[in-house]
Design goal:
Layout (H helix, E strand, L loop, with lengths): L8 E5 L7 H11 L3 E5 L2 H6 L2 H8 L2 E2 L7 H15 L3 E6 L5 H4 L9 H25 L2 E11 L11 H25 L2 E7 L13 H11 L7 H12 L10 E4 L10 H6 L6
Parallel strand pairs: 1-2, 1-4, 2-3, 4-5, 5-6, 6-7
Helix pairs in contact: 1-3, 1-9, 4-6, 6-7
Catalytic activity: a 2,3-saturated acyl-[ACP] + NAD(+) = a (2E)-enoyl-[ACP] + NADH + H(+)
EC number: 1.3.1.9
Keywords: Fatty acid biosynthesis, Fatty acid metabolism, Lipid biosynthesis, Lipid metabolism, NAD, Oxidoreductase
Length: 272
């Protein structure tokens, strides 16, 4: 334990169960000396195990629908009251695609579902930041991190409309990062994580095969949820106080690897 977050206060969204990255982030933040509020939409809370995480980390829960400005206002207001001061770090770990859930091909996307995905998975980030800025709820030099995936830059057919949505999420981080950084020195970054065996990730069609493929491409292999949590902690800490408006790949080198010897061998293309 290094106590990288000793005395820091935070808000962590999206901790559904022990497989989720947000859950691991909460555990790591607790180990590093932070105090924080846990939050999720009421329906997700009924499905998950957030109460057990709250008990383990000595945290309180403030339910909030991240698409609702009034509920986000209540979240930031209550969190400051509970924690005794301004917020130092926020994790946005929210993602949902009805089109993926219903196995609708990208070229046949239901636009009502598409808009719902945008609101939940990307616009919620803008709303969260706008509320925090209006309330002056994040301390100077604070850090906000949102989880994303590299389908925002490259095409992965199975990721359908979430690819477009994640691209919007990353753009919001850059755009809002400029304004919030200029005015309050608040840092805003996205972490582009490897395919990860979370409850949400494994629900995507063909996830298992792609997980193995990415693992064979990445020189270090796929980054797991625990290592992603470690990375998020460094971004919440003062060690990265000059890092902002970045999309940071945490994927074992997958995003920078063109050809993998392992994949070539499996295809029977290695040199004789």
């Amino acid at each position: 334990m290094y106590n990288l977050l000793k005395g820091k206060r935070g808000i962590i969204t999206g901790a559904l169960d022990q497989n989720s990255i947000a859950w691991k982030v909460a555990e790591k933040a607790h180990e590093e000396g932070a105090s924080f509020v846990l939050t999720n939409a009421p329906i997700a809370m009924r499905m998950g195990e957030i109460n057990a995480l709250a008990e383990k980390t000595g945290s309180q829960i403030v339910p909030a629908d991240a698409t609702n400005v009034d509920e986000l206002t209540n979240l930031f207001t209550q969190s400051q009251e509970i924690l005794g001061g301004k917020i130092d770090f926020v994790l946005h770990s929210i993602g949902m695609s009805v089109n993926i859930r219903k196995k609708i091909p990208y070229t046949e996307s239901n636009y009502d579902y598409f808009m719902k995905g945008i609101d939940v998975s990307a616009m919620s980030f803008h709303k969260m930041l706008a509320v925090a800025k209006k309330l002056d709820a994040i301390s100077e030099g604070g850090s906000v991190v949102a989880l994303t995936y590299m389908a925002a830059q490259r095409t992965y057919p199975f990721y359908t409309d979430m690819a477009d949505i994640k691209a919007m999420l990353e753009s919001i981080a850059r755009s809002f990062g400029y304004h919030y950084g200029l005015e309050k020195k608040v840092r805003i970054n996205t972490v582009s994580q490897s395919p990860t065996k979370t409850t949400a990730g494994t629900g995507i069609k063909g996830f298992g095969d792609f997980y193995d493929y990415a693992n064979a491409i990445a020189p270090l292999g796929n980054a797991d949820a625990e290592s992603c949590a470690d990375y998020c902690i460094t971004l919440f800490s003062d060690l990265t106080r000059m890092v902002t408006m970045q999309n940071l790949f945490h994927d074992g080198g997958y995003s920078s690897t063109g050809v993998s010897d392992i994949v070539m061998q499996k295809m029977g293309l290695e040199d004789q």
